[in-house]
What we know:
Layout: E1 10-15, H1 24-27, E2 41-48, E3 55-57, E4 68-69, E5 74-75, H2 78-87, H3 93-106, H4 118-123
Antiparallel strand pairs: 1-2, 2-3, 4-5
Amino acid sequence: MKLTLAAGSGYLEIDHRNSPGLSPADVAHVPGMVAVGEGQHFERDVQQCSHCQRTIVLNPGRVRDRAVCFKCHHYICDDCEAIRVKSGACVPMKQVFDEVATHLERFRGFEDHPDADPVILLTDR
């Protein structure tokens, strides 16, 4: 099985052809929100940023290239691309999850480990 950049792509469909839809005033405060008005139908391909797990709605009219991390060979969002260019670091979310799991396992049995007392899980947030 050969993995390509298209692997893991998805599809977003918002259908307000028979509903009042969302007006831009209702969603103007939400960055990146797709406002689909009454009677409108919205369809786009989507990708997921491998570094932050943000869903990227692909704009078919985009002129500049979509950012790709050549270390993990996945699409990344514009914000993560700026970080990657500045620092040169490739930190996919899978790596973050693996590091957290390693630390949890390493310190299992310690007094202040979250597994030691279930109340800690709720009070430390």
